[in-house]
Design a protein that fits this description.
alpha/beta; Rossmann fold; five-stranded parallel sheet; four-stranded antiparallel sheet; 10 helices
Length: about 290
């Protein structure tokens, strides 16, 4: 168990909050509490938590809606849902909202601790399965899992999405000239630049040897120009750093999802790939 884990506990029954907090504090957890969803959201937007434990039945907004909104504010936060009405409980709805697990009331302290340990373990294993070992970004599997969720949301809300498809130029030349260790470092540097350019909530992934994607990056042309301009500036700043043995260059294409003409993730990738190769071709002609 991580002795530094922080938990947010949400329940409109103050006695439940006090009981859970009193049991978890001696175990090394740091706990904050809230008696309704609105108060919980305010706390989540100001403070980072590893896990939120929330009841379904709350005054006003229910635990499912709270989970969805809280996960948008903190995508990496795990959620355990408490329920005293297991017969009416919808596991599918809990998962769709973003919960990792649920626990039936009443429960013992030991049962809750086991649930916490279980969601931590599941999260660790999932991250290992969807993380690129070299760069720490999402791998291809992780990208498709997260991108499909974003696409479903875009379809449901009839919103547009914009995807960046990027390729590290001249990776083979770097490998052949300076060695594969330098090639690996170039890929790591590109990942660092992408993470510095985009928001924590954006999906940044390495989906192939020298291929990267980012989703979403905005929907308007103005936003796209600002973001790609910032990416180019960060790339230039990196290349101006002393001691660089080679110049990093990235070619990229922009793919757009139009809810009026829906398409798949594969089709978005193909669109972005095509645009990227057009830019790469222009570079060679310059």
């Amino acid at each position: 168990m991580d002795q530094k884990q922080s938990l947010l506990i949400v329940d409109d029954d103050v006695s439940v909050l006090k009981s859970i907090e009193a049991g978890l504090l001696p175990q090394g957890y740091r706990c904050e509490t809230a008696t309704n969803a609105e108060a919980a959201l305010e706390v989540v937007r100001e403070t980072s938590f590893d896990i939120m434990i929330t009841d379904i039945v709350l005054n006003g907004m229910d635990g499912f809606e709270l989970t969805g909104k809280a996960r948008k504010a903190q995508p990496d936060m795990l959620v355990i849902i408490m329920t005293g009405f297991i017969e009416d409980f919808s596991y599918d709805r809990a998962i769709e909202a973003g919960a990792s697990d649920f626990i039936k009331k009443p429960f013992t302290l030991q049962e809750l601790i086991i649930r916490i340990q279980l969601v931590n373990l599941q999260d660790k294993l999932l991250k290992m399965a969807v993380t690129d070992d070299l760069t720490g970004l999402c791998n291809r599997r992780g990208f498709f899992n997260l991108a499909e969720q974003q696409l479903k949301l875009a379809r449901r809300e009839t919103k547009g999405l914009v995807m960046l498809y990027a390729d590290l130029d001249n990776l083979k030349t770097i490998n052949d000239t300076f060695g594969h260790q330098s090639g690996d470092q170039a890929l790591i540097d590109v990942a660092t630049i992408l993470k510095a350019t985009f928001r924590d909530s954006d999906i940044v992934a390495r989906i192939g040897g020298d291929e990267f994607t980012v989703l979403p990056i905005g929907t308007s042309g103005d936003n796209i120009e600002k973001i790609t301009g910032r990416l180019q500036k960060n790339l230039e700043n990196h290349n101006e750093t002393k001691g660089q043995r080679y110049t990093l260059s990235i070619s990229f294409g922009i793919a757009c999802y139009d809810p009026a003409n829906p398409c798949s993730i594969d089709e978005l990738l193909a669109q972005g790939d095509k645009m990227m190769y057009q830019q790469k071709k222009l570079k060679k002609q310059a």
